TrEMBL record:
Keyword Transmembrane helix in annotation: yes
One Pfam family per UniProt: DUF6542
Ranges of Low complexity composition bias in the record: 148-160, 168-182
Membrane found in the keyword field: yes
Keywords: Membrane, Transmembrane, Transmembrane helix
Organism in which the protein naturally occurs: Streptomyces corynorhini
InterPro entries hit by this protein: DUF6542 (IPR046672)
Name assigned to this protein: DUF6542 domain-containing protein
Region of interest (Disordered), residue spans: 142-189
Residues annotated as domain DUF6542: 23-136
Transmembrane spans: 24-47, 53-70, 75-95, 107-131
Amino acid sequence: MPPARRRQVAPVVRRLRGLPNPRFTGLGAGLFATATMLFFAFLDQLLFDGAPLVYGLLFLPVSAVTALWVRTADLVTAPIAVPIAFAVGALPIAGGTDGFGGQLMGLVTTLAMHAGWLYGGTLVAGVIASVRKVRQMGRRQLARDAAARGGPPGRGAAVRPPAPPTGRVPRAPRAPRTGADASRTARRA
């Protein structure tokens, strides 16, 4: 049998594979996005006097990284967590007046004026999460097909072995119901 040929991997792909690949739970992804956006908002306030453009530009990669680093089982949380992180992080750059009402009004105004960034980041997270989910479903289908063929994924078709016995004993048919039970069953049908 000839040795397996290895595909050449582009240097960019090799470099990307070397990056960290953590897997957050849904809650962890939300906390990561929120903490990162708060940090960026304070940094934006410090360096750029709270420029919403800088904050919005930084929100897009945070959305992408959050969607890439969330566990496969928690993919649905990524597009939910990133808008919450945007809103929480926008507090330092909102610029409301004194008091709770003024701060709230400033936050609502900031969210309304920069909804494009919010929608864009949510879209980025949603698309990445959807693509990851579709790829996961495809891998599962390949594994199911390979198991049905009796071999590893990607191999030629093999003869399918008979299904093993389940060990279940067939149940005897039930006796017909009478009385009040029969009328309740008839009403449900």
